[in-house]
Amino acid sequence: MPVPTAPNVRAAPGVRLLPNAVTVLALCSGLSGVQFMLTGNEVGAIAAIALAGVFDALDGRLARLLDASSRIGAELDSLSDCISFGVSPALILFLWSLHDLRIGWVVALVLVVSAALRLARFNTLADDTEAKPFAGEFFVGVPAPAGALVALTPLATELLLGPGWWSAPVTVAIWTVLSAALMISRIPTASLKSVRVPPTAIAPALVLVGLVAAAIVAVPFLLYPVAILAYLAHIPYAVYRYRWLDRHPEVWHVPPRQRRAVRRAHRRLGLLPPRRPLPRRVAGAAARAGRRTINRDRPGPQRLGARRRRQDRS
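The structure assignment produced for this chain is given below.
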């Protein structure tokens, strides 16, 4: 007797609403950060933006897990991210320090516009059918949640160490502009979606999660700058990894663990990556030198005539 197969049933309407509800929670949390800042609660302001980042990481995964993806959910997520990680951090920084600068509001607007442009580019790249197979393992530029947390690092540092050069309005303005530049840059950064924990590392990973949770409760503002510095330090490795994959199309469809084995084999065998094309100046100089060498070795008309006369005499 054949076993009946389960029909392809989509998620129920109530379940399909869950990812959008989490997105709305992210929006409310991000805006609540501004309210906390207006009442002088700087700790609550940073915590609200961080909580919005957690909600933003959950809504997309819930939508894929429950097969509840929708067009309205994607648009709502983009609008929520623009407000939670663009408008809210900019207002928090302006209310805290940037209002003391003449161009403080301009700097805040730069952060908002950069977040909007970064999200618009993300939506455009999501429909790119010509992307390379490994492109899904990277973000183009720093994601909006990470960019917002990076921009708020001077405020977190002041809560940890007190006032200093890191909380001076000029320093905050420069740091904010750099954070905005990272969001709209084309620098590849690693995506957590591509991270796979091997079975042998599950137990140590759970222990690490427990330690991080304990640190968040005990010394939250000591963990914050450390986490931001670790994130910024990973960017050079992400750039190297992206360029290495771009030069080796033979490993585009290979699992990451096997890619590491290929890289180790390349280092062991001394295989160098393909050389980049010579700059135009160098290439032109080399071509001219080659032509001069060829013309020097080639006999001219006078030499050719003298050679013929010698042959005729002999």
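Interim note for the steering committee: The longest helix spans residues 220-247. The CA atoms of residues 208 and 214 lie 10 Å apart.
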